[in-house]
């Protein structure tokens, strides 16, 4: 049997796979170059007087089948817009997941809300509706669900729960562009859907964010929140409420408009490659490919192991297939900002009396500490790239099974 690369053997793969960290794993073409040049040559880089951001908002809303879209400067900003639209009283609670990017959670704290973490499904890492229901209190104002790695969360169940309890539902779709949830896309079941254009997402302009909603009042509040509360739709010349500058630039919008034309193909190509990987490893014992009911859009490709994720991930990475054990090193609530209440000065506000102990969300902790290995996924993986990934996984699987 071939020696593992981690023990000095020859790696399955010696050339790097396409990666989002350079041109090999991104789809930026002449059209994006022309779009950026068009804006620069126009002399107008600001959306306040330009046309590109407004056009992008219209195009994104119609792609998603939404009435309104508001562009902003990042995915975190998009989530901040959504929480600001919820407009919690200080100390109000928003229920969310412990497995995500921190951009899901910090906007809650920035609006002086308390993030309440509900546990996740052990199979997908997405919020478990029963755990969300158990976390609802009289102070709950909203549920903020994440479609982790591109696999839709049980959003219709969460919708029903929110309706029953009079809560707003926010969808964090940063990892889930065009993921079908029934006959609509992720982002359209909640009151607000939030998207990111950061470098590693399905489409990118370096940074940027978009929200969609059908609610005119929520849309207006979010637009005002990108623009210091300054109402450009009236001639009041005043600041209507506390808000920041989260405006997207014309350059970002022009590039994103081209990226939008590539999005469906990006999703299709990610799905094709992932299906090939799943078929190639489906027979391996003790290793579970992601569950896919035709709805996974594969921002990443998560694998579930019975245990031993750290040696396993190190061995696979050494074979030339980089991967991350756990996705996170700890659930979000373990971060100093939350568990240590590192918020506003030494006050701990608004988390005084709130504890985030070890064991708060046992399934999330099990996934992060024992089960999850995440492979970066990419639309530019060729068939032979995926063959190499299959071969590397099979090699590691056999070798480590024999060792144990
Ligand atoms: C990337 C990401 C964010 C944050 O987006 P930024 O554009 O990096 O601010 C939020 N939530 C999830 C699930 C993400 O993947």
TrEMBL record:
The entry's keywords: Aminotransferase, Pyridoxal phosphate, Transferase
Gene Ontology BP annotations: polysaccharide biosynthetic process
Modification sites for N6-(pyridoxal phosphate)lysine: 201
InterPro entries, A to Z: DegT/StrS_aminotransferase (IPR000653), PyrdxlP-dep_Trfase (IPR015424), PyrdxlP-dep_Trfase_major (IPR015421), PyrdxlP-dep_Trfase_small (IPR015422)
Residues spanning the membrane: none
Pfam families registered for this protein in UniProt: DegT_DnrJ_EryC1
Protein name (record): DegT/DnrJ/EryC1/StrS family aminotransferase
Naturally occurring in which organism (per UniProt): Kribbella antibiotica
């Amino acid at each position: 049997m071939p020696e593992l690369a981690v023990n000095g053997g020859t790696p399955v793969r010696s050339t790097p796979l396409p990666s989002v960290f350079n041109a090999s794993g991104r789809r930026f073409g002449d059209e994006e170059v022309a779009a950026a040049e068009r804006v620069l040559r126009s002399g107008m880089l600001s959306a306040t007087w330009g046309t590109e951001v407004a056009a992008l908002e219209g195009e994104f809303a119609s792609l998603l089948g939404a009435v309104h879209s508001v562009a902003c400067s990042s995915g975190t900003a998009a989530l901040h817009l959504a929480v600001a639209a919820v407009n919690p009283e200080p100390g109000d609670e928003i229920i969310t997941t412990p497995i995500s990017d921190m951009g899901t959670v910090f906007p809650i704290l920035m609006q002086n809300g308390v993030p309440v973490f509900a546990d996740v499904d052990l199979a997908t890492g997405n919020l478990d509706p029963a755990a969300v229901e158990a976390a609802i209190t009289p102070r709950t104002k909203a549920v903020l669900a994440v479609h982790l790695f591109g696999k839709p969360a049980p959003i219709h169940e969460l919708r029903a729960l929110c309706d029953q309890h009079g809560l707003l539902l926010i969808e964090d779709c940063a990892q889930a562009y065009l993921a079908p949830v029934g006959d609509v896309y992720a982002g359209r079941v909640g009151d607000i859907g939030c998207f990111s254009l950061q470098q590693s997402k399905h489409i990118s302009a370096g940074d940027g964010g978009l929200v969609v909603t059908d609610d005119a009042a929520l849309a207006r509040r979010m637009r005002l929140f990108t623009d210091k509360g300054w109402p450009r739709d009236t001639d009041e010349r005043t600041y209507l409420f506390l808000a920041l500058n989260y405006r997207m630039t014309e350059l970002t919008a022009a590039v994103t408009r081209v990226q939008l034309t590539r999005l469906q193909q990006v999703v299709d190509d990610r799905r094709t490659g992932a299906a090939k990987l799943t078929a190639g490893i489906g027979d391996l014992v003790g290793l579970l490919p992601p569950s896919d009911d035709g709805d996974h859009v594969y921002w990443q490709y998560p694998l579930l192991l019975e245990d031993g994720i750290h040696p396993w991930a190190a061995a696979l990475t050494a074979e030339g297939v980089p991967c991350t054990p756990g996705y996170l090193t700890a659930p979000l609530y373990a971060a100093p900002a939350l568990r240590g209440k590192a918020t506003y000065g030494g006050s701990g506000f608004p988390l005084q009396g709130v504890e985030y102990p070890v064991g708060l969300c046992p399934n999330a902790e099990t996934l992060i500490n024992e089960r999850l290995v995440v492979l970066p996924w990419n639309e530019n993986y060729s068939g032979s790239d995926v063959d190499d990934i299959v071969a590397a996984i099979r090699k590691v699987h056999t070798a480590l099974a024999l060792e144990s």
